Amino acid sequence: GCGSSTDSGEGNKQQTEQQDETSDKTKDSSEDTDSTQGENTGNTLVVYYSATGNTESVANVIASATGGDLFELEPAEPYTDEDLDWTDDNSRVTKEYEDESLRDVELVSETIENWESYDTVFIGYPIWWGIAAWPVDTFVEANDFTGKTVIPFATSASSGMGDSGDLLAEMAGTGNWQEGERFRSGADESDVEEWVESLNL
Ligand SMILES: Cc1cc2nc3c(=O)[nH]c(=O)nc-3n(C[C@H](O)[C@H](O)[C@H](O)COP(=O)(O)O)c2cc1C
Hints:
The protein is an alpha/beta fold.
């Protein structure tokens, strides 16, 4: 079922400052990060969108392996099985694929509590038609990744990462984006763990 695990309370949207990369802001007067420091070497966040659970499984393994926090991106209007039927010319996902202007998927929440405290951000998604499932676009466009290491990951039936990571990096415009990794839909936990270890975070 769709995750109801985030009960961060609706309506506590922090202001998302939309900043162009020209502003060299050195002020950081807002020390509102509650004690997120501790246990781990760095603060890791695992953000993901998953329509049918495959990417979620990988995200869970990454979070366990890194001690990171999980955040599920939830479309305000969730995709039903019918919506996801790519064999149907009239399904929601097919229409969105064919008309880029329809891909602005509104999310339940696109801001993260204590965003400043994370220095490594994993971003996970299913591959749709060779690119990242577009619900993640909204998140990527809404946040400032300056100073963060960003590591994309994906699940797919057979396609590789393709340009999905590069396209997201372009959309973000900020952040130190890594190459990332694609896993098959039913990836073994051990494969994911090995990959995380290889990153030497
Ligand atoms: C609309 C749609 C398009 C897809 N396009 C591709 C594709 O281009 N290549 C591929 O290998 N798998 C494709 N798939 C399969 C998904 O990438 C795969 O099932 C993935 O693991 C789903 O992740 P999720 O369970 O987290 O949503 C597509 C699935 C859907 C629903």
